[in-house]
Structures are given as structure tokens and as C-alpha cells.
Amino acid sequence: MRRGSGPGLAIAAVAGISLLVALGLALPVYWVYLLTTVAIAALIARSVGLLTNQAGLITLCQMAFAAIGGWVVSWIALAWPGAPFLLLVLLGGVAAASVGLLLGLATARIRGVELAVVTLGFGAALDLVLRQGAFPGVGSGTPVIPSAPFDDPRWFFALCWAILLVLQSGSALLGRTAHGLGWAAIRTSERAAAALGMRVGRAKASAFGVGSLFAGVAGGLLAGQYGLLTTAVFTPLASMMHLVTAVLCGASLFSGAVLAGVFSVFMPEALRRLGLPLDVGNALLAIGAFDVLRRGGGGIAEQARAKLQDRAFRGARVACELPGAGGSPKSRDLPPSSERGTVLRAGYRSTAQRDPARRGDRHSRQACLEISGLSVSYGGNRALDAVDLTVRAGEVHALIGSNGAGKTTLIDAVTGFATAHSGIVRVDGAEIDRLSAQKRADRGVRRTFQQGRAIEALSVGDYLRLAVAAESGGRAAETERVRSVSAYFGLPDANVPIRLMDAGSRRVLEIAGALASGPRVLLLDEPAAGSAETESRALAELVRRIPAEFGCTVLLIEHDMGFVRAAATRVTVLDDGRVLAEGAVDEVLADPRVVAAYLGEEVAR
């Protein structure tokens, strides 16, 4: 949000805490008990929200982690009577977090519905084990009695809400770090997260660990609230209903988690008072969650935040102002695709024409990116066939060809996303073939994607901070790089949510993020797609100057030949996975074979 929102949030927090204190002191014990249960349910909802709403990991076993926390608290309380209850709750949370971390590591390569099935299986297996052995203390009838003063319902109420607020504050601080911001990245696209240099498996495992900590603490508090736990509280069905409620309410936000807690507690209470079956509430929650998923607009709290953001940034600049673009037209102002990039000889003067000095030294420059004999096959179809390509340091080298020629496949292979390939890829003379995509990004190989992968859940500033996180230059160096690329590309204010930006500005932001990381070689996949003519011209000029401004070599894929002429000094043409021509831009684009292959025989004549 804009400046000035900080004091407003502080006032709201103080008012909320004051209201809680007043309720705890003034309400009858029964209502205090219900509000205590709201806090515990909010902890579980927040654990689901962190995993599913923030990290995009569908989990159906959060009540299993709560059961682990409750079991540990019950067991220690039985073995150590009079132990500090807060310590027991923390130990229960740590135990659940440890199991969650292990489950996250074990399922790091699983995603989507498959992950949901695995977590459901884990929850069902643990439920079966607990049904066979029961919780500690149940057989002897020895309940968990919280140590003083938490044996008093009002103090227990205060403890539950205090723990919720502390854990939420901790998760909010973590969410501002590169690690926490990475959860939004893996929800948007694991490929984009890997291209940013993130360790995707570690990020997913950490999300499981933190989410399990919330659930485990909630389970420990349930042990203190109920005294004796039963397996009926922690069934897989209970996990599903907490997931449904978290999705409906938007539990990625604290307000959504609290709202989910209110729904979980007071909806059954209202149905009981009305004499209606409790299953009616579950059905209503499920319908509401289905509607949220169908519309794709987030839960109740997330929609409310989006409306507040829309109002806060109304009239503010939310698009990039590229120098020389004369404004940033929206995608609706774009000319038809048939009118863009269809004539090879049209467009701007080439870089070599404008910078004659650069033509004389192009053969003497040291190679930055070397590709030798690169071949990629998919199901017996060869997408690349023994491609050789050298990109010299300090140049913008264009890679062109018709659709299906293998351009994006080549970038995938170079950046580590097409693992089934043969050949050699070197950066500054060092082979990187056996490195993962994340490690190649660490080595300075950064890319953008043909389909925009900017992370809508983040702000402009958060995205840039995430992009530079893998670098070790220190916070001051990171801040300077972010400031430099922001000014270079005319990015909007750091607080602007990415979801408010148009498609063209998001593509520019992706380029800025990749450059902010200080890469050795930058691979741009159709950066001008979705841009108006003036915007494309301005972006081409900025791409041309990247080597001089940022010391970064560029390999560019682009269909707009005007853009290629303006930005690149050399060009390689792919045709059906093979190199058709390579050399200076003007020479290659005048080659009759290139004209025939790229535009077709009819236009060539």
C-alpha cells in the first residue's frame, strides 16, 4: 500500500488487541470458550493458507499435524506432570514442524492433485495409527491440565490469541524475506521460481515446515482445551473442511484466517441453535469454496484486500514508462499481430549501422556463451539437431526463426529446463550441462519466458528483491541494482501490486528482475510480445544498451524484425531445429534462404 498505511495498520492492531482483552474480561465463560476455539481454528486455517493459498501446495493433512502436536503435548504432560504448558505447546509445534519438513522434502517433486493425494494418504495413515493406539492419557483417564495461570479459561483465551498473534507476526516477517517471497513464486510457476535461482524443493519443504508448526501448536492447544483428545477431532474429513474454509475465507491473510476460525466455530453453533443438521454448514462452505475457485478471484479477505488496493492506487502510475516510448499503451491498444514483425527489411536501422565501431571488434570478442552439438528430442521428434552457436561477450545476439524452429527449446536447454539433451553448453568456458536450473541461475544464466511469469501476488519491489536474492553482493549492492534497473526501465513505484500492471509492463518487469540479479548472460524470449509499436521501439533501444549499461551479454528471441535490427549486432537463424544462417544482422536478413524460410516463397518473390 502507499505511504501512510503503516500507522493505520498499527492503530487497527492496537484496537483489535484491546477488543480481545475486553471480550476476554467481559463475556461469559462459554463465549470465552468459543472465542478461544476461534483462535485455535484460525491457527489451523493459517497453516492451510500458508501452504495452499500462498505456496500453491494443496494439502489434505493439516489436522494430522495438529494430531502430532496434540499427541506430543499429551504424552509429555503425562510423563512430566506440572510442566510449563507453554513449553509443551512449543514442543508439540516443533515435533509437527519436523514431520512436516520431512514430508515436504519427500514430496518436493510432486505437485498439484498428486500432492493432494499423497497428503490425504499421509493423513489417513496417521489417523489409522492413532485409532489403534489412542492418545496418551485416554486409557487411564488422565487429562492434560494446563499449568497456572492457564488453567483459568480467561488466561487460556489470552494465551491462544497471544500465540496466534506472535506466530502471525513471525510469518509476516518471514514473508518479507526472499525465502517467504519465494512461496508466491512457486505458486505462480515453479519454472519461473527456478529461473530466479530459487531452490524450489527447499522452498516447498520450508512451507510445509512452517505450516505444520502452526497446525502442531493448534493441536497442542486443543489438548489443553479438551483435556483428553480423541481421533474424531483429527480425521481426514476435518482436514478437508479446514481446507475448504481456508480457501473460502482467503487464509493467506491473517484476517482471512480469523474469519475462517469464526466460520468454523460459529456456523455449527448457529445451526445447533436453529435445529439444523451440522452437515448443512459443511455443504455451504464447500459451495462457497467452489465458487471462489471457479472465479479465481481469491477468498473473501483476499478479495477485500484487492478492492482496497484498487482504491489506494487509483490514479497512480502502474505501468512502465520506457524512455522514448511516449507513454505505455495498454494491451487493448495493440495493432493486430499480422501487422507486427512481418517484413524483414522494414523497421529501424540496425545496431551495426548506428554503431560502426562495434562492427570492427565483433570477431575479436571472447565467447561468453558457447553451444556445441546441442540436440533435443521429444518422443522421437528432434526439436534441435546438432546446433552450434557462439554468443560473444558484450553483444546482443538475436535468435530468429519461424514458429516451431526450436528457439524456445534452445533456451530451455541452455537454462536447464530441457534436461534430455545432448551436446555441450559453456558459459565463460565452464561447462554447465550437469547443473540444475537453479545452479545455472546462480552461475549468472538468467532468462525470461515466452509467456509472462511475473508473480501477481507480489509488488514491484518485492519481485525485484526476490530476483536479486541469490546474489551475495550484500544488501547495499542489491539495493543499488534494484534502483538502477527501476530507473532504467521506468518501473512504477515499488509498492505497486504486479496484478495491476498491464501485460507489456509485466514483461519489462521480468527483464528488470533478471538484470537486477547481475547475470553474466541474459536470454530474452520474445520480450516485445504484447507491446505497442512505440513501446517496442523504446524497449529495443534499452535492450541494445544492456551490455554497455549492465555488463551483460544478451541472447534475444524475437519475431519482430524491426526490434531485431534495432537491438542486435549478430543473428542466428534456426529452421526446423538446425542452424540455417549466422552473421551480421543486415547480411543474414538479406540472405534469400532466410527470406524464403522466414516469410515463405510468395513473399520472397
What does this structure look like?
This protein is α/β, with parallel strands linked by helices and 605 residues long. Helices cover 57% and strands 11% of the residues. The protein contains 25 helices and ten strands. The strands form two sheets. The chain has a six-stranded mixed sheet with strand order 6-7-8-3-9-10, with helices on both faces. A four-stranded antiparallel sheet has the order 2-1-4-5, with helices on one face. α21 links the parallel β7 and β8 (553-557). α7 (178-188) crosses α9 and α7 packs across α18 (460-467). The longest helix is centred in the middle third of the chain and has 27 residues, at 200-226.
Task: Please sum up the structure shown.
This protein is an alpha/beta fold.
Describe the secondary structure blueprint for this structure.
Elements (H helix, E strand, L loop, with lengths): L4 H22 L2 H26 L7 H18 L5 H22 L5 H22 L19 H23 L2 H11 L1 H6 L4 H27 L9 H14 L4 H21 L4 H17 L4 H13 L38 H4 L1 H5 L6 E12 L2 E12 L3 E5 L6 H9 L5 E7 L2 E2 L5 H6 L2 E3 L12 H8 L7 H15 L13 H14 L4 E5 L7 H18 L2 E5 L3 H7 L2 E6 L2 E7 H5 L2 H8 L1 H4 L1
Parallel strand pairs: 3-8, 3-9, 6-7, 7-8
Antiparallel strand pairs: 1-2, 1-4, 4-5, 9-10
Helix pairs in contact: 1-6, 2-6, 2-9, 2-10, 2-11, 3-4, 3-5, 3-9, 4-9, 6-7, 6-9, 7-9, 7-18, 10-11, 10-12, 18-20, 19-20, 21-22
